[in-house]
Amino acid sequence: xxxxxxxxxxxxxxxxxxxxxxxxxxxxxxxxxxxxxxxxxxxxxxxxxxxxxxxxxxxxxxxxxxxxxxxxxxxxxxxxxxxxxxxxxxxxxxxxxxxxxxxxxxxxxxxxxxxxxxxxxxxxxxxxxxxxxxxxxxxxxxxxxxxxxxxxxxxxxxxxxxxxxxxxxxxxxxxxxxxxxxxxxxxxxxxxxxxxxxxxxxxxxxxxxxxxxxxxxxxxxxxxxxxxxxxxxxxxxxxxxxxxxxxxxxxxxxxxxxxxxxxxxxxxxxxxxxxxxxxxxxxxxxxxxxxxxxxxxxxxxxxxxxxxxxxxxxxxxxxxxxxxxxxxxxxxxxxxxxxxxxxxxxxxxxxxxxxxxxxxxxxxxxxxxxxxxxxxxxxxxxxxxxxxxxxxxxxxxxxxxxxxxxxxxxxxxxxxxxxxxxxxxxxxxxxxxxxxxxxxxxxxxxxxxxxxxxxxxxxxxxxxxxxxxxxxxxxxxxxxxxxxxxxxxxxxxxxxxxxxxxxxxxxxxxxxxxxxxxxxxxxxxxxxxxxxxxxxxxxxxxxxxxxxxxxxxxxxxxxxxxxxxxx
Length: 567
Prior knowledge:
Layout: E1 3-8, E2 12-18, H1 26-29, E3 38-41, E4 49-52, E5 60-61, E6 66-72, E7 78-82, E8 91-94, E9 99-104, E10 111-119, E11 122-132, H2 138-152, E12 158-159, E13 166-171, H3 178-201, E14 206-215, H4 224-231, E15 236-241, E16 247-260, H5 264-288, H6 294-314, H7 317-320, H8 332-336, H9 340-350, E17 353-355, E18 361-365, H10 368-388, E19 400-403, E20 406-409, E21 416-420, E22 426-431, E23 448-453, E24 459-466, H11 474-480, H12 487-499, H13 503-506, E25 513-520, H14 534-541, E26 544-548, H15 555-566
Parallel strand pairs: 5-11, 24-25, 25-26
Antiparallel strand pairs: 1-2, 1-4, 2-6, 3-11, 6-9, 7-10, 8-9, 10-11, 12-18, 13-17, 13-18, 14-16, 15-16, 19-20, 21-22, 22-23, 23-24
């Protein structure tokens, strides 16, 4: 089993190996940068020794099994931790916890991944690796694909918690639209209430030093304020002699610690609640000025109900006693303590902007297969908009579904982007359409559906599937002429072509799918390689084939779309 790197201290030894050597995918052959292994000792005087495989060039890739083995030298128990528990759920502890071993697979995630190794319950060192895409060039294709999606719909790139992260910055976006803000507020109001009620029942107290007058004979720990008062003869009451014969007043000012709810996390929450309350009041005033109707009355009632709920929350002791200036950044306790982290996430849904521009933040991104699927859809929308001469911004055409911190493209008929063409024709693009009902033994749900409506009422449908999978084996190359989507993905295209029907227009058994196409991440090794491949030839002969598609390599999809528009 090839050892990629090892990390060793006096207490333990860690070995990272590749479990099974797989054929090198096309994108990996061009990889030149070594993986970013960074190791940091967390114990004073302990500097981990790092050994990298000979040659110094090594890469970790997505969708690859790696073996992690950690063994104690001193008999203490070990543990390997990661922020994403899914990544380390395959690790096992044996020999009384003195050995940790198992498989690590990053799935379809790329970027930096950080691990913490503990010995005897104490963090020993932290190490970070960088995971590369196996089917894309990391520094060009992947980043261009990610940035393209971010440019059109920024939030679609991010996830809240994943095994890998990418450096990013927090930005200050423009204020969200009123309807979207209200929708989000109604969605998170219950979570916010529940979290703040929990905080009110079990608050995290802070301590505050307050200077108060105390009897001189009861002061046990003199501080700077007390020493200054004695030196200047301050205090109240008659003079008396202290233990060293020093004259002092009967009552002297001294600092004492006391518990308080005026903490940074309570101030942060109070400031956010005040902003929500101010905006709600403005919306309610605007609605009162409009002509009454049943619908607007319902809106006003909902606004009033939300205002009453906000007023109750503002009266909680943890909010009322938070009188100081709120911190600019959320305190650590707000991100980790029970109740506080839920309240923070609820507020975060109402306003947050992130950009992948490098920086101190660690941003988790969507899995590559989903990101590639999004990019394929957005690329097709962009091409269709160019053909139709659409001047509307693309982001206004894309419907986004928000579910808490998770954001995704709207699926099914609700995500229909329509373009009006010349000669009375119309082009519809649907993301994740679903065909089901009595006429289907198994529902069919391709990634993308392109429907061309002609002026005479005839309809032509084209199914496209974004396949972030690549078969580059010698046998596959001999059969098809170039790497491409696996054969099971091509079989799925045959099923889509034959199973999807339009009974309303053509009757039972009528095939309406003109072509079924797989989009796969590949760049031609030599010019004209795709034009002579079986994927291209069979697309014209039987209506099933595949088209390579990557950032900067979109000419084949553009040519195919032009042919479709001419039919």
